[in-house]
Amino acid sequence: MDLITPDIGLIFWTGLVFLLLMFVLTKFIWKPLMGAVKNREENIQEALDMAKKTKAEMQELQTKNENLLKEARVERDQMIKEAKETSNRMIEEAKGKAKSEADKVLESARASIESEKNAALTELKAQVATVALEIAEKVIREELSSDAKQKELASKLADDISLN
């Protein structure tokens, strides 16, 4: 029965030890323990804030990267378009130059053909004149082969001269 009804001395000493234990725990254990918990809580909060900040930065970087990709694609498309335009322009210029050169060659060939044609016509006229003179000479020799024919021609020419 002594356990159920404690003695006043036991209550006093138990209370004193309890208070002393509470004082020691509060002074040396509870404050550092609470400080460590608070420190840990602050570290966790800082880590969470850093994670949010990093996430926001990552989102911002991702948005910037997407914008850069869009700009790069637009620039690439523009460069391709310019290259095609330059290529087409160069092809058109080459075609124009080739056509111009072909026209020059064709005109030169026409001029050459015309000059050769004129030279051939001149030569042909000269040959025709030579042949005509030879034929006329042969005809006149034959007609003037006798004295009677020569006298008749001379009188005919004289009559023509006197009439004029």
Structural description of this entry:
The chain has about 160 residues and is mostly helical. The protein is about 95% helix and about 0% strand. It has one domain. It is built from 2 helices and no strands. It is rod-shaped and about 205 Å long.
Report the β-strand fraction as a percent range.
under 5%
Mean pLDDT, to the nearest integer, reads 89
Total strands: 0
Report the end-to-end length measured between terminal Cα atoms.
Answer: 194 Å
List unreliable stretches of 5+ residues: none
Number of DSSP helices? 2
Helix content: over 70%
Q: Strand-and-helix sequence, N→C?
A: HH
How many structural domains does the protein architecture include?
1
Kindly name the structural category.
mainly alpha
Q: What Rg, in angstroms, do the CA atoms define? A: 66 Å
Major beta-sheet overview? none
Q: Looking at the structure, what is the overall shape?
A: rod-shaped
Topology diagram in text:
Blueprint: H1 8-143, H2 147-163
Keyword list:
164 residues, rod-shaped, mainly alpha, 2 helices
Task: Please summarize what this structure is.
The protein is mainly α and 164 residues long. It contains two helices and no strands. The mean pLDDT is 89.
